[in-house]
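Researcher: Structure for this, please.
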Amino acid sequence: MHDKIRNLSLSGNVGFDSLPDQLVIKAVHKGFTFNILCIGETGLGKSTLLDSLFNTNFDAQPSPHNLSSVKLKSNTFELQECNVQMKLTIIDTVGYGDQINKEESFKPIVEYVDSQFEAYLQEELKIKRCIPSYHDTRIHVCLYFICPTGHGLKSIDLLCMKKLDSKINIIPLISKADTISKVELQKFKERINQELANNHVKIYQFPGDDDAVSELNVSMNSHLPFAVIGSNELIRVGNKMVRARQYPWGTVQVENETHCDFVKLREMLIRTNMEDLREQTHSKHYELYRKTRLEQMGFSDVDSDNKPLSFQQTCEKKMALHHQELQEKEEDMKQQFILRVKEKEAQLKEAEKELQSKFEQMKEENTREKKKFEDYQKMLEDDITEFNRLKLNYSTQQLSGSHHTLSLGTLGKGVRVRRIGL
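Model: Predicted structure, token format:
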């Protein structure tokens, strides 16, 4: 395909050499978005460092130490420098490392990062997309703040960075670097890099493929992790006011490269590699998430024979598979319905049989009771008949006795009694 491309020379100026200028004008008009995730224990100076990096005051509220789990707090700010506008989002991990059991501390962070990728993916998959005006909330860089113990990384640091290194660009920072000496700091950096390598944790490496900044980036990679200091105090040093920290033994200047790596961090993060961080987020980390999610949805670029498969063919194949699954489910539901109907019919027949048996039993009992009552009725009728007969006989006898009494009385009236004297 590329063999057919021909190189031609122009006989005059056409004008497409202004494309870079057009892109710059369009980008400046649209503005930029940059999202920073700050991970570190409470009190390591995350908010102060960000205030120093962007030379402003984000008015961050102090975080409590008694939270039962890690909470992510997001704040978005509109910044403008000259004619360039930037929508900056800062995500803080409130309560990170404050729990007794720290094994689950990384989970809310991983879920948040994935949720931002998922939101962008769902916007991409819409029929009517609004990507140009969509507020991109994907994390472009993670500033991981390491406690300046001087002994090495904690297990929570290694576990969290290992879970995140395939999802976001991680830049490790040694916070409050003014609390340890330069010799201890150098040994601490070496120990951290050794532990990261031993545990196969991949941190962001400043790119060396751009000739304009490759030498600077390669040299800066050797300074990772950056030892940084932040301050909201302005102290007069000489004839100018600088950000610094005042101690009884002296002053530590934030932007003094002999005191800390703050200037190196600002140079690499904002002035040199901000666009590369944005590009890496989209082309590397988001693409990996998108590939994994689409594969989970059943999409693929090749078929079972490893032949190229178009998106339309994949959709048609998936629809056919889905239709087949629906038919199988429908047939299975029919079979289950028939089986349940048969089971119900068998239950009803068994219940009917039991009812019929109870009916016959009750019918027999009723017949026996009816015969018993009929016999009892007959016995009562016989008793009544006998009683009536006896009553009649008694009445007859009473009448006969009355007639005999009357005869004797009548005869007595006509009898004369003769008196005999002695």
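Researcher: Any notable elements?
Model: The longest helix spans residues 311-413. The radius of gyration is 51 Å.
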